[in-house]
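Why does residue order matter? Because the sequence determines the fold. Keep that principle in mind as you read this record.
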Amino acid sequence: MNKACDVLVVGAGPVGLTLANLLGQQGIDVLVAEREHELVDYPRAVGIDDEALRAMQTAGLVDEVLPHTVPDQKIYMINGAGAILSEVNPTTREFGWPRRNGFVQPLVDRVLLAGLDRFPGTAVRFGAEVVDLDEDADGVVAALADGGTVRARYAVAAEGGSSPTRKRLGISFEGETRPTDGIVIDVANDPIGTPHAVFGGDPARSYASIALPHGIRRWEFTLFEHEGEAEVEDDAFVFALLGPHVPDPSKLDIIRRRVYRHHARVAGRFRHGRIFLAGDAAHVMPVVGGQGWNSGIRDAFNLGWKLAAVVKGLAADGLLDTYETERLGHVTQMVAVSLRMAKEMTDHDPEKAAERDRIAASRTPEEREAQKRQAFKPQPRFDRGVVVHTPLPVSKSLPVRDVPRLAGTIFPQPRATDADGVEMLLDDATGQGWRILTWNNDPTAFLSAERRVALDRLGARLVQVVPKAQLPWAREQATAGVTVVGDLGGEAGLQAWFDARPVGAVILRPDHVIAAECLTQQLDDVAARVLAAACAV
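Structure:
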């Protein structure tokens, strides 16, 4: 096979397939090269979060993904006696979707693969192993095991934690590997039947029991150093593990059993010239935090719009440097949180487990509530990259309040209405891509002709947000090219968001991150700075 494309994606896992969908939406020619002859059919991840579901919404696939999820899945952390140490049950919808959801990864992977059929310039080649990548002045050339080649402007290695690409490039992968393995057992016809997940910090042997969609239950057990593949294939051993959990393990409909290893590692670089690392090729983390899969989707979401802008000639290559700038710090935090949780729940020292139980019992109601709403999960917050931090406005028309500046964080997604008054999620009402939102103002009144031209080139949408009561009048008066959105009010509405902070305008990136926030009169100058940060040409 000899082929030319804009972007070569190495690996048809969830990260590579998500990236290909996002690029395909932008008209980018993408080839996904996968070494195996079909999608991996066994589930690795079991949790999808609200940020990832919003990415699926952006990719136009969320309706196909949702049937394979358990929304608002509660997690109980318990000790060896079954006492609850903490509960994770966030029920808010800041980004439009449930914050925690169980899911069946292979079925979602199939949705992502099928989604590529929408784009004539996107293709997947199974049985295509990339054995080398060379760079030249114009791009990269991939050598395939069958003797074929692929030429691309850029390449993204998303071929898993053992990434041959990362190793060939000599990129470090620092961190640690746990000394013991684990076993995953997936069972059809769930013999428990409850919807939640349990992580058991039993010093005798730690475990997890997780309800999944379609009547599947997963168990995960720690294996000790003298236990390995031989024991896992022994029914008697597996039935002994499951014995304390079900009345009769011999009657279980076991789908699969697999041994896995716990890693916590981050690559030293995410970019090497025209080659990028994403997903497990760039970082791996323990499964307890449920963030490995989601972190990979964040990689694809961050990198996708930037690659598309550069390939289409809308931004200079320097924009791609911000992928590592923005993702490396956040994923390092996520790995640390996951590792800490794993150590807390899988420590088999009885004294340490007892101390953990004492600490859990002494938590205040406020601390328990923080655990419940998943406050331990670090949210992406970019200090550098495609973000402009403006000083707190000084105006006698504004109350003096100590409010956090939100540039570099993800903008919320409440329900709103389109110009016709039809209720929907905000991203659907505004449309995707770059957006400028102004509260109760026509944004064109604050943008110069020069800035309008630059924003139009990026495909930016200008959005005027008004209370729903004003919608008919605002729609009649709207300037051509301005999208009018109606706010539904309430604590989660856009009026409440603007009311709580001293800004009247926000500039949103295609990945829904706030690039800048400002008073409306400052919009033109701030937009110019955002365009510069985005290396727009």
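Residues 321-345 form the longest helix (25 residues).
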